[in-house]
Amino acid sequence: MNTCVNGIGERAGNADLLSCILAFRYGFAVADRAPAGDPVDLSWARRFGLWAVLDGLGLAVAPGDEDLVFSLVQLCAAATGKPLTDDELRLIAGYPRQLALLFPGLLTG
Question: What is the pTM of this model?
């Protein structure tokens, strides 16, 4: 499903609704502070985006490390301000618990 957000999309291409919802809920952490509209079950959505990329690279995340990997990817992408490289994703997927030590107090898992 695609949509237009704040008028953007009509002439510049449509914004993906799922990406917008995920960005607001997890990327900007506004879901708890400013709930809007009906609740949306996004528990299934985390396997797309990031997980499709990791699968495409032939990478598997250890069971139980999924949330930590997701948080590390978000944190690192926010810190660099650009998409992570394949090598950076390989490092995060392969050593999430070791990399989490670099961010004390910012991650759980």
Answer: 0.59
37 and 48, same structural domain? no
Closest CA to 26 of 48, 52, 5, 58: 48
Supply the angle between the helices 66-80 and 86-94 in degrees, to the nearest 10: 140
56-73 per-position pLDDT tens digit? 889 889 999 988 998 898
Note whether 28 and 52 are same-domain residues: no
Could you tell me where the DSSP H helices lie in 1-109?
17-22, 50-56, 66-80, 86-94, 96-100
- Say which residues have a Cβ less than 8 Å from residue 46's Cβ, sequence separation at least 6: 66, 70
Angle, vertex CA 42, rays to CA 40 and CA 45, nearest 5: 145
Domain count, the chain: 2
For residue 55, being part of any structural domain is answered with: yes
